[in-house]
Amino acid sequence: MKNRFRTALALAAAGAVTLAGCSDPGAGDTATGPADWPAQDADLSGTTLTIWAAQNSNTVPDSVIAGFEDLTGAEVEVVTIPDPYEQGVQTKVATGDKPDLAFWQPTASQLTALNASQNLQSLDGAPWLDAYDPELRDITGILDDTRYAALITTPAVEGVYYNKEVFAANGITDLPTDWASFLQTARDLKAAGTTPFYEMGADRWATQWWVQVQLADAAEDGLWDRVNAGEEAFTDPTIQGAIDQYKALIDEGLFNEDIKTATFEDQGAALLAGDAAMVMQVNSFFGQLQSLADTDELNQKIGFFPISPTGTTGTFIPDQSNALVAFKTGDEQQESASRQLLSYWLGDGYGDFVNAQSTVSLQTGVETPADVPEALLTVADSVGTSVGSMQALAIANPDLYIYLADMIQGTKTPAEVAEATQAQFAELAKAQGAEGF
Amino acid sequence: MIRRPRPWLQKGIPMASVSAGAPRSRRRDHPLWFLVPALAVLVVFFFVPTLFNFVYAFTDWSSFKSAINFAGTDNFVSLFSNGTLLNSLKVTLVYAVLVALFQNLFGLGLALLLERDTAVNRAVRVAFFIPVVMSALAVGYIFQALLKPDGALNGIIGWFTGSEVTIPWLGSTTWTIVVVAVVHAWKWMGLSMLIYLAGLKTIDEDVLEAARLDGASRWTMFRSIRFPLLAPAVTFNVATALLGSMNGFDIVQATTEGGPGGTTELLNIFIFRTFGQGLFAQATTMSLVLFLMVAILAFPVIRYLRKREDVL
Questions:
Q1: CATH homologous superfamily of domain B82-311?
Q2: Which of A57, B42, B120, B223 has the fewest Cβ atoms surrounding its Cβ within 10 A?
Q3: What is the ipTM for the molecules in this complex?
Q4: Around A347, how many Cα atoms within 13 Å sit in the side-chain half-sphere?
């Protein structure tokens, strides 16, 4: 009897192993045909499209969906993937679960993470491309010369949000024009008894902006291409120098005293209250300010300027709420309907969309609504001339921000930050099969 | 000393094994194929994933490629040459030891306090058991709010001291791991309390009475009689607290996310981070390392604790 039991166990195990298979269930077929672009109003009765969205983007498509459903008879369902969104989506896709469309960060590293050439539809030759402001058309969403993501809102820019009233009270009338004048402004403010910068060491993620804006000139000069090829490392003088500089500014006392425990919420409140003069942040920080004050107050108090070592070049970093990708689901009809929805979104539906979202328009033919706050307009103006961030241009996105937060807490030296980041970058690059790793 | 029954270690002894002619009737009552549904679930959801845990650790499975290739011990080499894994292993061990310590101290203290079966004690026992059935993430987020520099705990301390208190309870690179371990122990102390209560109930009243007649103080009675006789409960509580908290994730993720400065980055948080980067094979390798570490630690710990039970 014991033997029979063993046999049964072995058979069951063998069966289960066979069923589970030993291949990656996320693998799809690679065939790419030239995509046709259906008319925006083609009838789609009986078709249901699924869009994956994050908790902060799941209401973004509302106006578009309503218009599209009326126009085509299709049904569009938004499924919220819980945070951390990117990890959730990647895990689902890796196990073979795909939507028709998803909000996705249109950067090289994140498109690679989704295995774009396998899983995503090419959007080359899409009908809406010519409608874009020419400066923004090819700014992001492209991997290995193929367009995979459709940009719907202006990508975030890393730069300095400042309190206009604090600047005025300290007699600062001219905005900094390069890194040196930026630091001089900070030192003048400190001498006058004002905290120049506010950083959120406890929530960690904003720490990396300080390093990235210092790399803007180098990024323009192909820094990330060299890093991607393994020719330059985070431990080499360019990036290491930026990390060292950040640490030196903290040690100099230019930041808030509670830098180790301050959070994202504290940062917004502090800038608005004038407890600190400047914050190095991205667009989502302004979203935080909007939850604390109305547009009039923000227009009166908060300004934005980009900064780079030798000038005022911004560093852009698109996030998940800025763009959508269309998946290869293997069902030609569904795939075509996904493309049709994107055509509508960036076509006839775009005007309603920017109005409903009170956001800056990417298209020359669509006006930006009047109620967009001034700081956001300044941010949008800087996008055209800005350079890509690490997330936008590097093939992998290591946890630089965590290591920098460790440095603020005192558990890593600047040299260790660079080493840890480089080690993780190399690991990711190797997993991607990148040459040079 | 007389061997005492240890009912909580002997659960599940079927009555059939006591009656005569057991093998025959037992086989007729419980045909082996009754096992199949449960076994199938066990195989599919436990054995196979565990098996794949071993297999995938030796591959280059990632979110970047569709093919999965054999990679030898590559993952192990790169993980062990990278200091983060060893740091996480160290943090995990320290955390587990702290949790085991606190959870058992709290649990035993509560059990001794609430030992008598009064109506009040019963109600209080229920109150202390509630955190056990609460969602660990919810517990973590609530404590995160309580322990903020401007949180409720500092508010209470400030009210008593009459001055403003802004201690960053979760902001110290040295003490935060202790604070988080206390939160973990707080959540699970009700379970330890319950098991210690059950253990205390099995101690023979005669032995305690004899000790009292001999003039033993309460402390002597606890130290020399009750605590040694609680050995089986200690075994269970220490082993589950120690080995269970090595798999800890939820409370730490909700309170500190591994910070400040990586000082509370448990191995599971590191695994979560690695998996999120799309490095599935490396994450699998780490979970294999964790599995091995728990297994290696479990045997000596349980053997030592079982040896203590020889007094019974």
A1: MetI-like (1.10.3720.10)
A2: B120
A3: 0.76
A4: 17
